[in-house]
Amino acid sequence: MGWLTRALRNDGVLKGFGKRTLVTWDDEIVLVTGGSRGIGGLLAETLALRHVNVVVLDLVPPEIENGNINFYKCDVSDLDQVKNVAKEIIEDVGHPTILVNNAGILRGKTILDGSEEDIQETINTNLLSSFWTTKVFLPNMIENNHGHIVTIASILGYTGIAQTADYCASKAGLISFHDSLRFELKMRYNAPKIRTTLVCPGHMGTGLFDGVVVTMPFLTPCLPPLDLVKLIITALDRNEGREIYIPYFTYLTPLLRAGPGFLFDLATRYSGAHSSMKTWTDKRKLLEIKKTE
């Protein structure tokens, strides 16, 4: 039934329902938050290699140099910084037509061990930044009834696991943010041609979850980020709002969550999810150690 859901959410603009309008990349400007590393970095790099005009917002420059990537240093958790950098972007490059809310951090601490600053920084970066960038860049999309907003959440938005409470809570918030945005565009702003895509990956080999060990890797395999990037670009290419779950079994997680509680508890327990973070590697500490050597 996935094809029917996509058809209805894209106003019937799929084969058999209406005429599909593919994206003309010459007319698009893609803004990626957290676009210097990880999934965001690979997405920005891949689009730039296709000669797409890309804007990256991050605290550090991208790892690659490409004339199609325009980097702006910005803490996207700070609304004032987002507003100020938006003026520069619009003047230098133009109005972004595709917004990829990707910025995310992981502190990997229990609720009691996590400091107030850790928790606040995680919620601000992972969740509130999507509100700020959307508030700033969505009005122009609504004015033109054209655009695409991609929300990078996580399958952990459907299930909390030990030692990631703030991260899971922020990703759960992003899932609800995506749903509310989708309905507001159609029901409040009369902008049905603005697409929205929700991305809920499982364990990806981006470095964010370095050191994590799972007891059933066949259920929770660590996948290469390029697999996910290809799916995102396909949705953008086809101008389709989608919900992307990878690997495929992650489609079952929302259903499992809606089922009997004991089944959900058994599944998370025997998958090793709650012990997986015990071996997680905090890259910030590694950098601090290297600086003191």
Give structural notes.
The N and C termini lie far apart (about 55 Å). The protein has one domain (about 1-290): NAD(P)-binding Rossmann-like Domain (Rossmann fold), CATH 3.40.50.720. With about 290 residues, it is of the alpha/beta class. The chain is about 45% helix and about 15% strand. The protein has nine helices and seven strands; from the N terminus they run αβαββαβαβαβαβααα. α5 links the parallel β5 (about 145-150) and β6 (about 195-200). α4 (about 115-145) runs parallel beside α5. Strands 3-2-1-4-5-6-7 form a seven-stranded parallel sheet, with helices on both faces.
Short recap of the structure:
By secondary structure, the chain is of the alpha/beta class. The chain is built from nine helices and seven strands, in the order αβαββαβαβαβαβααα.
Which terms summarize this structure?
alpha/beta, Rossmann fold, 9 helices, 293 residues, Short-chain dehydrogenase/reductase 3
Structural class by helix and strand composition: alpha/beta
| Helix amount | 40-55%
Oligomer: single chain
Main sheet characteristics: 7 strands, parallel
* Approximate shape: globular
Which stretches are low in confidence, meaning pLDDT under 50 for 5 or more residues running?
286-293
Report the mean per-residue pLDDT as an integer.
Answer: 87
Task: Tell me the name of the CATH homologous superfamily.
Answer: NAD(P)-binding Rossmann-like Domain
What share of residues are in beta strands?
A: 5-15%
Strand order of the largest sheet: 3-2-1-4-5-6-7
Estimated radius of gyration? 19 Å
Distance between the termini: 57 Å
H/E series:
HEHEEHEHEHEHEHHH
Number of E-type strands: 7
How large is the count of helical segments?
9
Q: Total domains, how many? A: 1
Q: What is the CATH topology descriptor?
A: Rossmann fold
CATH class: Alpha Beta
Tell me which CATH architecture applies here. Answer: 3-Layer(aba) Sandwich
Family: Belongs to the short-chain dehydrogenases/reductases (SDR) family.
Subcellular location: Membrane
Organism: Ambispora gerdemannii
Membrane topology: Multi-pass membrane protein
